[in-house]
C-alpha cells in the first residue's frame, strides 16, 4: 500500500482511551481510569496535532481559580500553572509513514515531525517515531482503535497509548 493511502486511512479525530507505561521492562502503576484526557488529529494531507492532559481541578491550588487565558500577572498563580505545565503534552507538525517498517493501513510505523510546536521546547524540530496498530471492534464497545507505541530505549521507557476514532 502506498504511504499516501495509509495516511488517508489513518486520518481522523481520535480520543484518548488509555495509556500504559514501563521503565526498563517494569510496568508502571496503572493509570487512574479517566485521568488522562486527550485528542489526536491526523489530517489526510499529512499533519498531526496531539493534546493530552492528566490533571484535574482538584490537583490545582484553589481548584484552578484564577487560571485563565491569557494568564494575569499574578505570582500567586505560578504554582497552579506549574501543575498545568507538567501535566499537559501538546505538539503538532507533519506526519508520514516510516519507511523503516513494512506498513499497511492496519500496522506499521509513523513519524510525527519535524515538530512545529511542542510543549517541551527542546523537542521542537525533532522526529518522533511511533509504531501503530489499528484494531476494528464490533459490538457495544465497537469502533476503530489506534494503538501507538512510543519507545525511548536510551531511557528505558515505553508507552502504549490507545485512541478511539470519533470522526
How would the blueprint of this fold be written?
Layout: H1 3-10, E1 12-23, E2 26-27, E3 37-42, E4 47-53, H2 78-86, E5 88-97, E6 107-112, E7 117-118, E8 128-137, E9 143-152, E10 157-165
Antiparallel strand pairs: 1-2, 1-3, 1-10, 3-4, 4-5, 5-6, 5-7, 6-8, 8-9, 9-10
Describe the structure.
There is one protein chain. Helix content is 10%, strand content 44%. The chain is mainly beta and 167 residues long. It has one domain (3-165): Lipocalin, CATH 2.40.128. β8 and β9 (143-152) form a beta hairpin. It starts with a helix and ends with a strand. Pfam families: Lipocalin_5. Residues 34-165 form the Lipocalin-like domain. This is Lipocalin-like domain-containing protein.
CATH class placement: Mainly Beta
Q: Count every helix, treating DSSP H or I runs of 4 or more residues as helices.
A: 2
User: Uncertain spans, ≥5 residues at pLDDT below 50?
Assistant: none
Q: Note the run of SSEs as H and E.
A: HEEEEHEEEEEE
Known CATH architecture: Beta Barrel
Distance between the termini: 23 Å
Shape: globular
Q: Can you tell me the number of structural domains? A: 1
Task: Name the structural class.
Answer: mainly beta
> Which strand-content bin applies to the residues?
35-45%
Rounded radius of gyration (Å): 17 Å
Number of strand elements = 10
Amino acid at each position: 500500500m502506498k504511504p499516501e493511502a495509509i495516511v488517508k486511512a489513518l486520518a481522523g479525530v481520535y480520543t484518548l482511551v488509555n495509556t500504559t507505561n514501563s521503565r526498563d521492562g517494569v510496568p508502571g502503576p496503572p493509570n487512574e481510569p479517566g485521568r488522562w484526557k486527550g485528542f489526536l488529529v491526523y489530517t489526510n494531507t499529512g499533519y498531526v496535532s496531539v493534546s493530552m492532559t492528566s490533571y484535574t481541578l482538584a490537583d490545582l491550588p484553589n481548584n484552578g481559580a484564577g487560571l485563565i487565558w491569557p494568564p494575569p500577572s499574578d505570582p500567586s498563580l505560578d504554582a497552579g500553572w506549574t501543575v498545568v505545565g507538567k501535566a499537559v503534552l501538546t505538539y503538532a507538525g507533519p506526519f508520514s509513514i516510516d519507511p523503516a517498517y513494512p506498513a499497511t493501513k492496519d500496522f506499521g510505523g509513523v513519524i510525527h515531525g519535524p515538530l512545529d510546536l511542542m510543549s517541551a521546547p527542546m523537542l521542537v524540530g525533532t522526529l518522533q517515531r511511533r509504531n501503530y496498530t489499528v484494531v476494528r471492534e464490533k459490538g457495544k464497545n465497537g469502533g476503530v482503535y489506534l494503538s501507538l507505541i512510543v519507545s525511548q530505549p536510551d531511557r528505558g521507557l515505553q508507552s502504549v497509548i490507545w485512541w478511539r476514532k470519533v470522526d
